[in-house]
Design brief:
Length: 169
């Protein structure tokens, strides 16, 4: 598959995810919506160990959203993804999600977004916290990605290291 085709397919997948989110947001049944996905750099969005990390994240996150429910769970070109709705205030859910993302090294590979009133994302800055750091250094992750500071090999090695506890033995 050519790079241009892959880029186009990834963009369409992101747009499809946004349409799904918009549908649930538009229904207005849940004051807080949560999306969970994996943050895996590179082309392979589900290397060995991802299934274990995903299951662990779901097992931890979903009970915290009670009363709530998983509204959609799918696998696509970007890997596993779910949308959940809950009645817990968005700021409280975001704090829990930040704990999931920071309490273990592999939590860095989780991407949990929380949306509150009017579908507004509740980001780290809303809680007075700095941006997420890079997988490999202490700079903001978005900055390293934009500037291409690290090679794909370096990133893949780190991902493999973080996923190693979740691989079936």
């Amino acid at each position: 598959m050519s790079y241009a085709k892959l880029k186009s397919d990834l963009l369409e997948t992101r747009e499809s995810r946004q349409r799904s989110f918009d549908r649930f947001y538009g229904e207005g049944a849940w004051p807080t919506l949560v999306t969970l996905s994996l943050n895996i750099p590179g082309v392979d969005k589900e290397p060995a160990g991802c299934a274990g990390l995903w299951q662990s994240a779901c097992d931890r996150l979903i009970p915290c959203l009670s009363p709530g429910q998983v509204l959609s769970e799918t696998r696509d070109l970007l890997g596993p993804w779910l949308i959940a709705g809950c009645r817990v205030p968005a700021a409280r859910v975001k704090r829990w999600c930040l704990e999931f993302e920071t309490d273990s090294p592999a939590g860095r590979l989780l991407d949990i977004d929380v949306y509150g009133f009017a579908g507004r994302p509740l980001d780290r800055s809303a809680l007075g916290l700095p941006q997420r750091t890079c997988l490999l250094c202490s700079a903001p992750g978005r900055e390293c990605m934009r500037l291409g500071r690290h090679t794909s090999g370096e990133l893949q090695a780190k991902v493999n290291e973080l996923l190693s506890p979740f691989r079936k033995k």
